[in-house]
Design brief:
Elements lengths: L1 E6 L2 H10 L7 E6 L2 H4 L3 E2 L7 H10 L4 E4 L2 H5 L2 H7 L4 E2 L7 H4 L1 H10 L7 E4 L4 H11 L3 E5 L8 E4 L2 H13 L10 E5 L4 E9 L4 E3 L4 E2 L2 E3 L3 E4 L4 E4 L6 H21 L6 E10 L2 E8 L6 H5 L7 H10 L13 E8 L16 H5 L4 E5 L2 E3 L5 E3 L3 E9 L2 H14 L13 H9 L1
Helix pairs in contact: 8-9
Length: 430
């Protein structure tokens, strides 16, 4: 099969690496890709948001299957565009992708279908004064979210009312996230531990990828502003068989059933970002694609042929059951540019990649890199690399990942040193 992966980040590099393991693949393409994807497949000079250009390429190159990494093409309707052309693609339609494209839609959908989540209020652009008054009445802690896509940075967990007003002003007054802040969702702060559960679904049936845990804040101990994700590990020890059954029964299946009931059946990757509270699992957010960096740790654990899974998904013939996994553990530590997620420089030379790649069961996943005309590898984004390691258990996977981190150097290299600590704590309790 000839497969096109849309996107240019770490998730897309990890996806191409996983697909390359299948004997069914005769050609792998990334649009636009990065230096890492170029080592495995062929990069294509088409932007991830150029829906017509992507469809034209898929037609011209007889692409058998397209997989979409980032959320914006999905929210913008790439699946609808491809299906109009009779092209096979994994992902939800534009209507179904509102689960991620609009926090207000997602919260209101969950309320309609009794899916456990935080209590919430929605305020539109004309409702700034009402939203400000509500913050005073509700008090803190509280969560303030931009309604639309904000690259994982539009959600603010505020410990004081002053912080909440600052977040509201940044979204609605300063327009830090543009049109994504036309509406604001204000939610109660849920207490517990966050977990990511990803399902591959044809709309009726689904299979689950190993549960994982991301680390959103930039600082150790969960401090500082939210990022796109500073590291992840899988499987998450907090999710035992009983809890996973509860998550499927109370969240995954009602979500798929609700989307069908509303006439927008959901196909593709359903990402359920959950809070494990004292009252049980509750939804923090939905995403309509693989997580990043969750993809870097869940995909390497899958031993089933992903091409078969995705093909059955598109054909509506995914019978459910479970994926075959390795039984080990994976960890990813993200290396970021100094100043991320606010302001940072790019074009900084990176060294030591070869030494990291020479380590056993360690993969260097490119996220924000580029090659100069002189073939020097330099930084080209906030999140630069993902150091991913496999091992028989989580402690060993984390040790290997950090061994790889120590090999790589670039000025301003920023990373968290506490990736996986919650998982280790659960293992020690068990």
């Amino acid at each position: 099969m000839r497969i096109l992966v849309v996107g240019s980040g770490g998730r897309e590099h990890a996806l191409i690496e996983a697909l390359a393991q299948s004997d069914q693949v005769s050609g792998l393409y990334a649009a636009p890709g990065n230096p890492g994807t170029a080592q495995v497949g062929t990069n294509v000079g088409v932007s991830a948001t150029d829906l017509d250009g992507l469809a034209d390429f898929a037609q011209a190159e007889s692409i058998d299957l397209t997989l979409v990494g980032p959320e914006r093409p999905l929210v913008n309707g790439i699946v609808d565009r491809f299906e109009e052309e009779g092209l096979s693609i994994v992902g939800p339609t534009q209507e179904a992708a509102r689960l991620e494209g609009s926090k207000a839609f997602a919260d209101q959908f969950m309320a309609r279908h009794d899916i456990p989540t935080a209590s919430f209020r929605v305020f539109d652009a004309a409702g700034y004064a009402d939203a400000s008054a509500y913050l005073d009445d509700a008090g803190a802690p509280i969560v303030v979210k931009a309604d639309g896509l904000a690259g994982g940075k539009g959600s603010f967990v505020c410990s004081t009312t002053e912080e909440a007003h600052d977040a509201l002003d940044r979204i609605m007054q300063e327009r830090a996230f543009g049109a994504a802040g036309d509406r604001v969702v204000i939610e109660e702060k849920m207490d517990g531990e966050e977990v990511s559960v990803l399902a591959l679904t044809d709309g009726s049936h689904y299979v689950l990828l190993p549960p994982s845990q991301d680390h959103k804040p930039i600082g150790e101990g969960g401090t500082g502003p939210n990022t796109g994700g500073m590291g992840a590990f899988a499987p998450a020890p907090i999710v035992d068989a009983s809890l996973l059954t509860e998550i499927c029964r109370d969240i995954v299946e009602p979500t798929l059933g609700g989307m069908q009931e509303e006439g927008t059946p959901y196909h593709g990757v359903l990402y359920c970002g959950l809070m494990i509270t004292d009252e049980g699992p509750k939804v923090v957010e939905y995403n309509c694609r693989l997580g990043d960096p969750e993809a870097q740790v869940v995909l390497p654990l899958v031993e089933s042929d992903l091409v078969d899974i995705f093909r059955d998904l598109v054909d509506g013939d995914l019978q459910g059951g479970s994926l075959r996994t390795s039984g080990g553990a994976a960890a990813c530590v993200v290396l970021a540019s100094d100043g991320y997620p606010i302001e940072y420089e790019t074009g900084v030379e990176i060294t030591g990649i070869g030494a990291a790649e020479a380590l056993e069961d360690v993969s260097v996943i490119h996220a924000g890199t580029r090659l100069t005309p002189e073939d020097r590898l330099v930084t080209d984004g906030g999140r630069v690399l993902g150091m991913t390691a496999l091992a028989s258990d989580l402690p060993s996977a984390l040790d290997r990942a950090y061994e790889g981190v120590d090999c790589v150097h670039f000025e301003g290299n920023t990373y968290r040193r506490d990736i996986g600590e919650k998982g280790l704590a659960h293992l020690s309790e068990g």
